[in-house]
Design goal:
Blueprint (H helix, E strand, L loop, with lengths): L1 H8 L4 H15 L3 H12 L4 H28 L2 H21 L3 H29 L5 H29 L1 H22 L10 H5 L5 H4 L2 H17 L5 H8 L4 H18 L3 H5 L4 H18 L6 H29 L5 H29 L2 H35 L25 H17 L16 H7 L31
Helix pairs in contact: 2-7, 2-8, 3-4, 3-8, 3-12, 4-5, 4-6, 4-17, 4-20, 5-6, 5-8, 6-19, 7-8, 7-13, 11-17, 11-18, 13-16, 15-16, 15-18, 17-18, 17-19, 17-20
Length: about 500
C-alpha cells in the first residue's frame, strides 16, 4: 500500500500541489451551483422553467467564459487570467446572493458562469506547463480525485448551510474562491512558455477541419444526448426530491454518494475496461446511466434516490475514461487543441440545454415523463455509439499508423502557405511548436467531470484552439486521398526534414 501511495503522489512539482490544493479548497466550498435550483424554486418562488433558464444561462456564460479564458491564457498569461476570473467570480457570487429580482438573477448568473469557467483553460494550461509529460496522466487523476472529494463533502456541507440560511451558501462559496485566488496570487508563478508565431496561427483559419470531420462531429452529437441526461442531477433531480417532501440536506447527502463512489472506485476502472472497445464501453455506460435516471421515476424515498445515484454513477465512472480515450484517438496531434476545445464546448452546450429541456419537461409533462425520457435518450445514445464503432475503429487505427515523426495534422486547406520567412526551419523551432500544441491541447481538456459547442467556427473558439495549429512550413498536398475517413487536410505526406 505504501509503495502504491508513493507511486501515486511522488515526484510531482511543487506548483502542481499548489494547483491541487486550490482545486480542493474551491470544490469544498462549491455550494451554490449544487443548490441553485432548490434556492430559486423554494426560496425565491420561481417556476421550474424559470429556474431552468437561470441555470441554463450559467451554462451559456460558462461556454463563452471557457472560450475567452483560453484566448487570454495564451495571449495574456495563465496567472493573470486565473486571478481576474477568480476574484471576479467571488464578487459575483456575493452579488447573486443579494439579488432578488428575476432579471438581476439572470444577468448575475450569466456573468458568474462566464467568470467561473474562464479559469478552467488557464488552470489546465498551467498544469500542463509544470507537469512533465510522463506524469500528466497521474497528475490529472489526482486532480480529478480532488474535484470529486470536494464535491462529495461540499454536497453535505451545502445541505447543512441551506438549513441555516441560504445566504450562507453564497458567502461560503465566495470565500472559498477568494482563498484559492489568494493562494495563487501569493505562491503561483506564471508558466506560459514563449510563443512563436501564435498570432499568425490564430489568424490561419477556423475550426473548419474539425467541423468537416464527420466521425468526430458524429461522436459529439451522440454524446450530447448523454450530457443532457447527466446534467439533470444538478437541476431537475433536486426539484423532484423536494416535491416528494425531502429536504435540501437530504438531497445533499444523496448526491454526495456520486462523489464518494468516484473517489473510492475510479482508480480501479481502467483495469476493468482495459482491452475493451471504447465504443462498446460507452454504449454499456450509457445504458447504465439511463437505467439509473429512469428508475428515478419510481423513487419516493431517500434510500431509493440514493440507489439511482449509485447506478448512474457506475455508468459515469465507465464513461469518463472512455470518452477521453475516444477524443484523443480521433484527434490529429497538431489539431488536438481544436478538437479538445470543440469537445469541451459541446459539454457546455449540454450543460446549458439540460436544465432548460429538463425544467420544461418536468413542469409540463411531469416527473415520470422526464425520467423515462432520460432512459429513452440514453438508449438512443448507446445505439449511436454501437453504430459508429466500426468507423471510429478504422479512424483510430489509421491515425496510429501515421509516421510518428510527422504531425498528424496540418493547417486547414483554406490556410495560405506560410512564407519562407515565417516557417520554422530548425529542429528547435519544430520542437517549440510541438510543445505549444501539447500545452494548448491539454488546456481545453480538464474539466471533464462536469465538464463544455455553441459558438461559430470564426468566433473566439478558434482563437482558444489556435495555439494547437503547428505551422511547419508546408501545406497538405491537394491531391492527398482520404485515409479511413480522415479529412484530406489531416493526412500529410512525410517531408524531407
Amino acid at each position: 500500500m505504501q509503495r502504491w501511495f508513493s507511486q501515486a503522489i511522488g515526484g510531482l512539482p511543487r506548483q502542481f500541489w499548489l494547483l491541487w490544493t486550490g482545486t480542493l479548497i474551491n470544490r469544498l466550498g462549491s455550494f451554490v451551483v449544487i443548490f441553485l435550483a432548490i434556492y430559486l424554486t423554494g426560496e425565491r418562488g420561481f417556476s421550474q422553467s424559470q429556474a431552468g433558464l437561470v441555470i441554463g444561462l450559467y451554462g451559456v456564460g460558462g461556454a463563452l467564459g471557457t472560450t475567452a479564458g483560453g484566448v487570454l491564457a495564451d495571449r495574456w498569461g495563465r496567472r493573470p487570467t486565473m486571478l481576474v476570473a477568480q476574484f471576479g467570480a467571488a464578487a459575483l457570487m456575493l452579488a447573486l446572493g443579494f439579488a432578488h429580482e428575476y432579471g438581476q438573477i439572470l444577468a448575475t448568473t450569466f456573468l458568474l458562469g462566464f467568470f467561473s469557467e474562464a479559469v478552467r483553460p488557464a488552470f489546465s494550461a498551467m498544469m500542463v506547463d509544470v507537469v512533465p509529460e510522463k506524469d500528466r496522466v497521474r497528475a490529472y487523476s489526482l486532480n480529478y480525485w480532488a474535484i470529486n472529494l470536494g464535491f462529495a463533502l461540499s454536497s453535505v456541507g451545502a445541505g447543512l448551510a441551506a438549513k441555516a440560511d441560504y445566504l450562507l451558501l453564497f458567502v461560503v462559496d465566495a470565500a472559498s474562491t477568494l482563498i484559492t485566488a489568494t493562494i495563487f496570487l501569493i505562491f503561483v508563478k506564471e508558466t506560459r512558455p514563449t510563443r512563436l508565431g501564435v498570432r499568425r496561427q490564430a489568424r490561419s483559419g477556423g475550426l473548419g477541419t474539425a467541423l468537416r470531420d464527420r466521425i468526430f462531429v458524429g461522436y459529439l452529437l451522440i454524446s450530447l444526448g448523454g450530457v443532457v441526461v447527466m446534467m439533470q442531477h444538478m437541476s431537475t433531480l433536486p426539484i423532484a426530491m423536494t416535491a416528494d417532501g425531502l429536504s435540501a440536506a437530504t438531497y445533499g447527502a444523496v448526491i454526495a454518494v456520486n462523489g464518494v463512489l468516484i473517489v473510492l472506485g475510479q482508480l480501479f476502472i481502467p483495469k476493468l475496461i482495459g482491452g475493451h472497445d471504447n465504443a462498446r464501453v460507452l454504449a454499456v455506460a450509457s445504458l447504465i446511466i439511463g437505467v439509473g435516471f429512469g428508475l428515478t421515476a419510481f423513487a419516493n424515498a431517500a434510500w431509493f434516490f440514493a440507489l439511482t445515484v449509485v447506478i448512474w454513477t457506475l455508468g459515469e465512472m465507465l464513461q469518463s475514461p472512455s470518452n477521453a480515450a475516444t477524443v484523443a484517438g480521433l484527434s490529429p496531434a497538431s489539431l488536438r487543441g481544436r478538437y479538445q476545445g470543440l469537445s469541451s464546448l459541446s459539454w457546455s452546450a449540454g450543460t446549458a440545454l439540460a436544465p432548460i429541456l429538463g425544467g420544461f419537461t418536468q413542469e409540463h409533462l411531469g416527473d415520470a415523463a422526464l425520467w423515462l425520457g432520460c432512459f429513452a435518450v440514453c438508449a438512443l445514445v448507446a445505439a449511436g455509439h454501437l453504430l459508429a464503432a466500426p468507423s471510429r475503429r478504422r479512424r483510430i487505427a489509421a491515425m496510429a499508423e501515421l509516421p510518428p515523426s510527422e504531425p498528424a495534422a496540418a493547417l486547414s486547406a483554406a490556410t495560405p502557405p506560410p512564407s519562407a520567412a515565417s516557417a520554422p526551419t530548425s529542429a528547435a523551432a519544430i520542437s517549440s511548436a510541438t510543445s505549444t500544441a501539447s500545452a494548448a491541447a491539454a488546456s481545453t481538456s480538464a474539466g471533464a467531470s462536469t465538464d463544455s459547442a455553441a459558438t461559430s467556427p470564426s468566433s473566439a473558439a478558434d482563437l482558444a484552439a489556435a495555439a494547437a495549429t503547428v505551422a511547419l512550413g508546408a501545406t497538405p498536398p491537394a491531391e492527398a486521398e482520404p485515409v479511413a475517413d480522415i479529412p484530406p487536410e489531416i493526412v500529410k505526406e512525410p517531408s524531407s526534414r
